[in-house]
Amino acid sequence: MKDANIKTIWPLIGNSHISEYLKKSIISGHVAGTYIFSGLNDLGKATTAKYFAKILLCQSGERDKSGEPCGVCPSCRIFDRAKDNASDLAGLHGDFHLIKRAEGKKNITIEQVREFINKLSLGSFLNSYKVGIIKNAENLSIEAANALLKTLEEPKKKVVIILTVSSAELLPPTIISRSMVLRFRPVSFGEIHDYLVENFNITRSSAKHLAHASLGRPALAAKLCEDKEYHAKYVETASSFLLASLKDLNERILIVESLVDKVKSDDLAVGTKGILDIWTGVVRDLMLLNNGVGELTQNDFMQKELARTGSKYSAAKLVRLYEALAKAKAYVNANVSPRLVLENVMMQL
After folding, report:
1. pTM of the complete model
2. CA–CA separation, 183 and 18 (whole Å)
3. Which helix (H) or strand (E) holds 138?
4. Which domain holds residue 30?
Protein backbone atom coordinates (compact mmCIF):
# COMPACT_ATOMS: atom_id res chain seq x y z
CA MET A 1 0.00 0.00 0.00
CA LYS A 2 1.30 3.40 -1.00
CA ASP A 3 1.49 6.45 1.22
CA ALA A 4 -1.94 7.64 2.31
CA ASN A 5 -1.04 11.22 1.39
CA ILE A 6 -0.63 10.58 -2.33
CA LYS A 7 -1.36 13.85 -4.14
CA THR A 8 -3.44 13.84 -7.30
CA ILE A 9 -3.80 16.16 -10.24
CA TRP A 10 -7.21 14.80 -11.20
CA PRO A 11 -9.61 17.31 -12.82
CA LEU A 12 -12.08 16.87 -9.98
CA ILE A 13 -13.19 19.60 -7.57
CA GLY A 14 -13.88 18.11 -4.17
CA ASN A 15 -14.54 14.40 -3.64
CA SER A 16 -10.80 13.79 -3.31
CA HIS A 17 -11.61 10.53 -1.50
CA ILE A 18 -12.70 9.13 -4.87
CA SER A 19 -9.78 10.30 -6.99
CA GLU A 20 -7.26 9.10 -4.38
CA TYR A 21 -9.03 5.73 -4.04
CA LEU A 22 -8.92 5.16 -7.81
CA LYS A 23 -5.33 6.30 -8.04
CA LYS A 24 -4.27 3.93 -5.29
CA SER A 25 -6.16 1.06 -6.94
CA ILE A 26 -4.09 1.59 -10.10
CA ILE A 27 -0.81 1.71 -8.17
CA SER A 28 -1.68 -1.38 -6.13
CA GLY A 29 -2.98 -3.27 -9.18
CA HIS A 30 -6.41 -3.81 -7.61
CA VAL A 31 -8.62 -2.33 -10.33
CA ALA A 32 -12.22 -3.58 -10.19
CA GLY A 33 -14.06 -4.86 -13.24
CA THR A 34 -17.12 -2.67 -12.71
CA TYR A 35 -17.60 0.68 -10.99
CA ILE A 36 -20.74 2.63 -10.22
CA PHE A 37 -20.17 6.38 -9.94
CA SER A 38 -23.23 7.52 -8.00
CA GLY A 39 -24.30 11.08 -7.25
CA LEU A 40 -26.20 14.14 -8.41
CA ASN A 41 -25.54 15.59 -11.84
CA ASP A 42 -22.65 18.05 -12.19
CA LEU A 43 -20.52 16.62 -9.38
CA GLY A 44 -17.80 15.43 -11.77
CA LYS A 45 -18.77 11.78 -12.34
CA ALA A 46 -18.29 11.87 -16.12
CA THR A 47 -15.06 13.88 -15.81
CA THR A 48 -13.67 11.37 -13.32
CA ALA A 49 -14.72 8.40 -15.46
CA LYS A 50 -12.96 9.84 -18.50
CA TYR A 51 -9.77 10.65 -16.57
CA PHE A 52 -9.72 7.21 -14.94
CA ALA A 53 -10.07 5.69 -18.42
CA LYS A 54 -7.22 7.88 -19.67
CA ILE A 55 -4.93 6.50 -16.95
CA LEU A 56 -5.94 2.88 -17.54
CA LEU A 57 -5.34 3.21 -21.28
CA CYS A 58 -2.07 5.12 -20.93
CA GLN A 59 0.77 3.17 -22.59
CA SER A 60 3.53 4.47 -20.34
CA GLY A 61 5.11 1.99 -17.97
CA GLU A 62 5.13 4.70 -15.32
CA ARG A 63 1.34 4.59 -15.06
CA ASP A 64 1.35 1.75 -12.54
CA LYS A 65 3.92 3.56 -10.39
CA SER A 66 2.48 7.07 -10.41
CA GLY A 67 -1.23 6.41 -10.94
CA GLU A 68 -1.24 9.23 -13.48
CA PRO A 69 -1.33 9.33 -17.30
CA CYS A 70 1.92 10.29 -19.06
CA GLY A 71 0.19 12.76 -21.37
CA VAL A 72 2.51 12.03 -24.31
CA CYS A 73 1.81 8.46 -25.50
CA PRO A 74 -0.51 7.88 -28.50
CA SER A 75 -3.43 6.97 -26.20
CA CYS A 76 -3.06 10.09 -24.03
CA ARG A 77 -2.81 12.27 -27.13
CA ILE A 78 -6.13 10.87 -28.38
CA PHE A 79 -7.76 11.73 -25.06
CA ASP A 80 -6.35 15.25 -25.15
CA ARG A 81 -7.46 15.73 -28.75
CA ALA A 82 -11.05 14.87 -27.82
CA LYS A 83 -10.94 17.44 -24.99
CA ASP A 84 -14.14 17.23 -22.92
CA ASN A 85 -16.32 15.41 -25.42
CA ALA A 86 -16.40 11.76 -24.37
CA SER A 87 -18.72 10.90 -27.27
CA ASP A 88 -16.08 12.08 -29.77
CA LEU A 89 -13.45 10.16 -27.83
CA ALA A 90 -15.43 6.94 -28.20
CA GLY A 91 -15.08 7.27 -31.95
CA LEU A 92 -11.36 8.04 -31.85
CA HIS A 93 -10.00 5.47 -29.39
CA GLY A 94 -10.38 1.79 -30.22
CA ASP A 95 -10.25 0.72 -26.57
CA PHE A 96 -12.69 3.30 -25.20
CA HIS A 97 -16.45 2.91 -25.64
CA LEU A 98 -19.40 4.93 -24.35
CA ILE A 99 -23.16 4.57 -24.55
CA LYS A 100 -25.97 6.80 -23.38
CA ARG A 101 -29.66 7.22 -24.08
CA ALA A 102 -30.12 8.31 -27.68
CA GLU A 103 -32.03 11.54 -28.32
CA GLY A 104 -35.75 10.93 -28.57
CA LYS A 105 -35.49 7.52 -26.90
CA LYS A 106 -36.95 6.59 -23.54
CA ASN A 107 -34.16 4.19 -22.54
CA ILE A 108 -30.71 2.86 -23.31
CA THR A 109 -31.72 -0.10 -25.46
CA ILE A 110 -30.67 -3.74 -25.38
CA GLU A 111 -29.26 -3.29 -28.90
CA GLN A 112 -26.94 -0.54 -27.63
CA VAL A 113 -25.76 -2.72 -24.75
CA ARG A 114 -25.18 -5.75 -26.98
CA GLU A 115 -23.03 -3.68 -29.34
CA PHE A 116 -21.21 -2.19 -26.33
CA ILE A 117 -20.50 -5.65 -24.88
CA ASN A 118 -19.34 -6.94 -28.25
CA LYS A 119 -16.82 -4.10 -28.62
CA LEU A 120 -15.46 -4.70 -25.12
CA SER A 121 -15.08 -8.42 -25.82
CA LEU A 122 -12.64 -7.79 -28.68
CA GLY A 123 -8.91 -7.71 -28.11
CA SER A 124 -7.26 -4.45 -27.09
CA PHE A 125 -5.96 -2.32 -29.95
CA LEU A 126 -3.12 -0.95 -27.83
CA ASN A 127 -2.43 -4.08 -25.77
CA SER A 128 -3.86 -2.49 -22.65
CA TYR A 129 -7.22 -2.22 -20.90
CA LYS A 130 -10.54 -1.79 -22.61
CA VAL A 131 -12.84 0.71 -20.90
CA GLY A 132 -16.57 1.18 -21.36
CA ILE A 133 -18.73 3.92 -19.83
CA ILE A 134 -22.52 3.81 -19.54
CA LYS A 135 -23.66 7.38 -18.96
CA ASN A 136 -26.80 7.91 -16.86
CA ALA A 137 -27.20 4.17 -16.41
CA GLU A 138 -30.55 4.63 -14.67
CA ASN A 139 -31.85 4.89 -18.25
CA LEU A 140 -31.05 1.25 -19.00
CA SER A 141 -34.14 -0.66 -20.09
CA ILE A 142 -34.90 -3.83 -18.14
CA GLU A 143 -33.73 -5.93 -21.08
CA ALA A 144 -30.55 -3.89 -21.44
CA ALA A 145 -29.78 -4.20 -17.72
CA ASN A 146 -30.24 -7.97 -17.89
CA ALA A 147 -27.92 -8.20 -20.91
CA LEU A 148 -25.29 -6.18 -19.06
CA LEU A 149 -25.64 -8.35 -15.96
CA LYS A 150 -24.59 -11.44 -17.91
CA THR A 151 -21.32 -9.71 -18.75
CA LEU A 152 -20.74 -8.56 -15.18
CA GLU A 153 -21.22 -12.11 -13.93
CA GLU A 154 -18.27 -13.25 -16.05
CA PRO A 155 -15.85 -10.29 -16.00
CA LYS A 156 -12.94 -10.33 -18.42
CA LYS A 157 -9.40 -9.46 -17.41
CA LYS A 158 -8.42 -5.86 -18.14
CA VAL A 159 -11.96 -4.84 -19.09
CA VAL A 160 -13.38 -2.05 -16.93
CA ILE A 161 -17.00 -0.89 -17.09
CA ILE A 162 -18.07 2.36 -15.42
CA LEU A 163 -21.72 3.22 -14.87
CA THR A 164 -22.57 6.83 -13.96
CA VAL A 165 -25.91 7.22 -12.22
CA SER A 166 -27.76 9.82 -10.15
CA SER A 167 -28.36 7.22 -7.44
CA ALA A 168 -26.98 3.68 -7.28
CA GLU A 169 -30.29 2.53 -5.83
CA LEU A 170 -31.94 3.17 -9.22
CA LEU A 171 -30.01 0.19 -10.62
CA PRO A 172 -31.00 -3.47 -10.15
CA PRO A 173 -29.55 -4.93 -6.91
CA THR A 174 -27.88 -7.66 -8.96
CA ILE A 175 -25.78 -5.06 -10.80
CA ILE A 176 -24.97 -3.16 -7.60
CA SER A 177 -23.76 -6.34 -5.89
CA ARG A 178 -21.25 -6.98 -8.68
CA SER A 179 -19.83 -3.46 -8.74
CA MET A 180 -17.64 -1.16 -6.70
CA VAL A 181 -19.93 1.74 -5.73
CA LEU A 182 -18.27 5.15 -5.33
CA ARG A 183 -20.54 7.91 -4.06
CA PHE A 184 -19.92 11.49 -5.12
CA ARG A 185 -21.00 14.07 -2.56
CA PRO A 186 -21.88 17.77 -2.98
CA VAL A 187 -18.80 19.97 -2.68
CA SER A 188 -18.43 22.68 -0.04
CA PHE A 189 -19.25 26.29 -0.88
CA GLY A 190 -15.68 27.33 -0.04
CA GLU A 191 -14.06 24.84 -2.42
CA ILE A 192 -16.30 25.87 -5.32
CA HIS A 193 -15.89 29.58 -4.56
CA ASP A 194 -12.08 29.33 -4.52
CA TYR A 195 -12.08 27.17 -7.67
CA LEU A 196 -14.08 29.81 -9.57
CA VAL A 197 -11.91 32.71 -8.40
CA GLU A 198 -8.67 30.89 -9.23
CA ASN A 199 -9.70 29.51 -12.63
CA PHE A 200 -12.22 31.88 -14.22
CA ASN A 201 -10.92 35.38 -13.53
CA ILE A 202 -14.12 36.58 -11.84
CA THR A 203 -14.71 38.68 -8.75
CA ARG A 204 -15.25 37.12 -5.36
CA SER A 205 -18.76 38.55 -5.34
CA SER A 206 -19.65 36.83 -8.63
CA ALA A 207 -18.02 33.62 -7.41
CA LYS A 208 -20.13 33.81 -4.25
CA HIS A 209 -23.39 34.02 -6.24
CA LEU A 210 -22.40 31.21 -8.60
CA ALA A 211 -21.14 28.96 -5.81
CA HIS A 212 -24.45 29.37 -3.99
CA ALA A 213 -26.44 28.76 -7.19
CA SER A 214 -24.53 25.55 -7.92
CA LEU A 215 -25.68 24.01 -4.63
CA GLY A 216 -22.51 21.98 -4.22
CA ARG A 217 -22.11 21.02 -7.89
CA PRO A 218 -18.80 22.33 -9.27
CA ALA A 219 -19.50 21.41 -12.90
CA LEU A 220 -22.72 23.44 -12.73
CA ALA A 221 -20.84 26.38 -11.21
CA ALA A 222 -18.31 26.25 -14.04
CA LYS A 223 -21.07 26.08 -16.65
CA LEU A 224 -22.90 29.03 -15.12
CA CYS A 225 -19.61 30.93 -15.21
CA GLU A 226 -18.50 30.02 -18.74
CA ASP A 227 -21.77 29.74 -20.66
CA LYS A 228 -23.49 33.14 -20.63
CA GLU A 229 -26.52 31.83 -22.51
CA TYR A 230 -26.95 28.99 -20.02
CA HIS A 231 -26.59 31.41 -17.11
CA ALA A 232 -29.22 33.74 -18.59
CA LYS A 233 -31.59 30.81 -19.07
CA TYR A 234 -31.05 29.72 -15.46
CA VAL A 235 -31.84 33.21 -14.16
CA GLU A 236 -34.92 33.43 -16.40
CA THR A 237 -36.23 30.06 -15.19
CA ALA A 238 -35.69 30.88 -11.52
CA SER A 239 -37.25 34.32 -11.91
CA SER A 240 -40.21 32.90 -13.84
CA PHE A 241 -41.42 31.03 -10.79
CA LEU A 242 -41.46 34.17 -8.67
CA LEU A 243 -43.06 36.14 -11.50
CA ALA A 244 -45.77 33.50 -11.95
CA SER A 245 -46.77 33.83 -8.29
CA LEU A 246 -47.86 37.40 -9.06
CA LYS A 247 -49.91 36.51 -12.15
CA ASP A 248 -53.31 34.97 -12.84
CA LEU A 249 -53.59 31.43 -14.17
CA ASN A 250 -53.74 32.41 -17.84
CA GLU A 251 -50.52 34.39 -17.55
CA ARG A 252 -48.87 31.52 -15.67
CA ILE A 253 -49.72 29.17 -18.53
CA LEU A 254 -48.11 31.61 -20.96
CA ILE A 255 -44.95 31.53 -18.83
CA VAL A 256 -44.92 27.73 -19.08
CA GLU A 257 -45.33 27.89 -22.85
CA SER A 258 -42.44 30.34 -23.12
CA LEU A 259 -40.14 28.06 -21.10
CA VAL A 260 -41.14 24.86 -22.93
CA ASP A 261 -40.73 26.47 -26.36
CA LYS A 262 -37.05 27.07 -25.54
CA VAL A 263 -36.37 23.40 -24.72
CA LYS A 264 -35.19 21.09 -27.49
CA SER A 265 -38.05 18.81 -28.52
CA ASP A 266 -35.85 15.70 -28.31
CA ASP A 267 -34.84 16.57 -24.75
CA LEU A 268 -38.20 17.87 -23.50
CA ALA A 269 -38.37 15.51 -20.52
CA VAL A 270 -34.77 16.26 -19.52
CA GLY A 271 -35.31 20.00 -19.97
CA THR A 272 -38.51 19.89 -17.95
CA LYS A 273 -36.76 18.13 -15.07
CA GLY A 274 -34.15 20.89 -15.23
CA ILE A 275 -36.89 23.51 -14.90
CA LEU A 276 -38.42 21.63 -11.98
CA ASP A 277 -35.01 21.38 -10.28
CA ILE A 278 -34.56 25.15 -10.50
CA TRP A 279 -38.10 25.81 -9.25
CA THR A 280 -37.50 23.41 -6.37
CA GLY A 281 -34.44 25.44 -5.45
CA VAL A 282 -36.54 28.61 -5.43
CA VAL A 283 -39.15 27.06 -3.13
CA ARG A 284 -36.38 25.79 -0.85
CA ASP A 285 -35.05 29.35 -0.69
CA LEU A 286 -38.50 30.65 0.26
CA MET A 287 -38.66 28.04 3.03
CA LEU A 288 -35.23 29.12 4.31
CA LEU A 289 -36.28 32.77 4.35
CA ASN A 290 -39.50 31.78 6.10
CA ASN A 291 -37.34 30.20 8.81
CA GLY A 292 -34.97 33.14 9.15
CA VAL A 293 -31.89 31.60 7.49
CA GLY A 294 -31.75 33.61 4.28
CA GLU A 295 -27.95 33.45 4.23
CA LEU A 296 -28.26 29.81 3.11
CA THR A 297 -30.35 30.53 0.01
CA GLN A 298 -29.25 29.05 -3.28
CA ASN A 299 -30.43 31.93 -5.47
CA ASP A 300 -29.07 34.80 -3.45
CA PHE A 301 -28.74 36.93 -6.60
CA MET A 302 -32.49 37.64 -6.23
CA GLN A 303 -32.76 38.08 -2.48
CA LYS A 304 -35.16 41.03 -2.74
CA GLU A 305 -37.54 39.17 -5.06
CA LEU A 306 -37.44 36.10 -2.82
CA ALA A 307 -38.22 38.17 0.27
CA ARG A 308 -41.11 39.91 -1.48
CA THR A 309 -42.61 36.63 -2.73
CA GLY A 310 -41.97 34.73 0.49
CA SER A 311 -44.19 37.09 2.46
CA LYS A 312 -47.16 35.81 0.43
CA TYR A 313 -46.80 32.17 1.45
CA SER A 314 -47.31 30.36 4.73
CA ALA A 315 -44.91 27.63 5.81
CA ALA A 316 -47.62 25.01 5.14
CA LYS A 317 -48.20 26.34 1.60
CA LEU A 318 -44.47 26.18 0.83
CA VAL A 319 -44.32 22.58 2.02
CA ARG A 320 -47.21 21.71 -0.29
CA LEU A 321 -45.46 23.41 -3.20
CA TYR A 322 -42.24 21.53 -2.46
CA GLU A 323 -44.15 18.24 -2.43
CA ALA A 324 -45.97 19.18 -5.64
CA LEU A 325 -42.65 19.74 -7.40
CA ALA A 326 -41.37 16.35 -6.21
CA LYS A 327 -44.50 14.70 -7.61
CA ALA A 328 -44.08 16.63 -10.85
CA LYS A 329 -40.62 15.10 -11.37
CA ALA A 330 -42.09 11.65 -10.78
CA TYR A 331 -44.80 12.36 -13.38
CA VAL A 332 -42.18 13.38 -15.96
CA ASN A 333 -40.27 10.15 -15.24
CA ALA A 334 -43.55 8.29 -15.82
CA ASN A 335 -43.82 9.93 -19.27
CA VAL A 336 -46.67 12.31 -18.45
CA SER A 337 -46.69 15.28 -20.84
CA PRO A 338 -44.02 17.73 -19.58
CA ARG A 339 -46.15 20.72 -20.55
CA LEU A 340 -49.12 19.39 -18.55
CA VAL A 341 -46.86 18.70 -15.58
CA LEU A 342 -45.58 22.28 -15.54
CA GLU A 343 -49.07 23.69 -15.99
CA ASN A 344 -50.28 21.62 -13.05
CA VAL A 345 -47.56 23.15 -10.87
CA MET A 346 -48.65 26.63 -11.97
CA MET A 347 -52.22 25.85 -10.91
CA GLN A 348 -51.01 25.23 -7.36
CA LEU A 349 -49.26 28.57 -6.85
Report:
1. 0.85
2. 8
3. none
4. 16-183
